[in-house]
């Protein structure tokens, strides 16, 4: 499975897990069992300005693209995001 396919499957799986809007893919890497994708979602939009509350989720996909696990890594405000 290509990187693009893995990211697409991770996005689809995350949308099945949570209705929160996906901000983007923060990282991806292939490991011995498949792919590890970290995606950012907007957990709470800012009421004023652009300091949304974001969360980073790690999704584990096997070699065929099936979701085998996920976890929330952290929550943070947009202004605190590591660039």
Task: Outline the structure in words.
It comes from Alloyangia mangrovi. Pfam families: GvpO. This is Gas vesicle protein. Strands 1-2-3-4 form a 4-stranded antiparallel sheet, with helices on one face. It has one helix at 3-17; strands at residues 22-31, 34-44, 53-62, 67-77. It has one domain. The chain contains 1 helix and 4 strands, in the order αββββ. It is of the alpha+beta class.
Query: What order do the strands of the largest sheet run in, or round the barrel if closed?
Result: 1-2-3-4
Quickly count the domains.
Answer: 1
Task: Describe the sheet with the most strands.
Answer: 4 strands, antiparallel
| Radius of gyration from CA coordinates | 13 Å
Distance between the termini: 28 Å
Could you say which structural class the secondary elements and strand pairing correspond to? alpha+beta
Quaternary organisation of the protein chains: single chain
Give the overall form. Answer: elongated
SSE string: HEEEE
Uncertain runs? none
Helix content: 10-25%
Query: Using DSSP, what is the number of strands?
Result: 4
Helical stretch tally: 1
- The overall pLDDT average reads 90
- Approximately how much beta-strand content do the residues carry? over 45%
Spell out the blueprint of helices and strands.
Elements: H1 3-17, E1 22-31, E2 34-44, E3 53-62, E4 67-77
Antiparallel strand pairs: 1-2, 2-3, 3-4
Task: Name the features.
single chain; alpha+beta; 4-stranded antiparallel beta sheet; 1 helix; 4 strands; elongated
In short:
The chain is α+β, with helices and mostly antiparallel strands and 83 residues long.
């Amino acid at each position: 499975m290509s990187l693009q396919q893995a990211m697409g499957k991770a996005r689809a799986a995350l949308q099945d897990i949570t209705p929160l809007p996906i901000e983007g893919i923060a990282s991806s890497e292939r490991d011995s069992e498949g792919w590890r994708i970290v995606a950012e979602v907007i957990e709470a939009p800012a009421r004023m300005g652009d300091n949304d509350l974001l969360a980073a989720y790690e999704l584990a996909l096997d070699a065929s693209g099936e979701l085998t696990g996920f976890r929330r890594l952290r929550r943070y405000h947009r202004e605190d995001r590591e660039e």
